[in-house]
């Protein structure tokens, strides 16, 4: 079992390493990237990167035992609500400022839940069968979010397509 946990941990570290430089580059340049030809602008890219970051935080919490499977399941439910809202908003085309603000608020609230659950007295068993299953699910979600983010960022996905994938 520990070998599986190590593999999942290694995969998540690699994913975080791959996603961090792209996100950090935008933050350090201080410029807002121009919308791409297909209408997938910086707002959709920012929102999808936040999805990736949240999934990675949940996965790390499960692996370290800071999150129980029940806490992670509750967080995943919240992440699904955010994904559904993003899907609805992105399907219509570039997101409006109000839509972006609403999603940002939802993500901030979910981020606070993740922090609170990771720092409470409840502990999880990272080597339990249910935790390992949840870790695999969260890793799959993180990988999918990363792929959507990359597609929006490089222009190979339109907002409509990204919205459809977020829903799925």
What's a quick, concise take on this entry?
With 168 residues, this protein is mostly helical.
The tally of helices reads: 6
The beta-strand count equals 0
The low-confidence parts are: 8-42
**In percent terms, what proportion of residues is strand?**
under 5%
Task: Provide structural commentary.
Mean pLDDT is 77; it is low at 8-42. This protein is elongated. The protein has helices at 2-29, 42-64, 69-91, 97-118, 129-154, 159-167. The protein contains six helices and no strands. The relative contact order is 0.19. It has 168 residues and is mostly helical.
What keyword list fits this structure?
168 residues, elongated, mainly alpha, 6 helices
Draw up the topology in text.
Elements: H1 2-29, H2 42-64, H3 69-91, H4 97-118, H5 129-154, H6 159-167
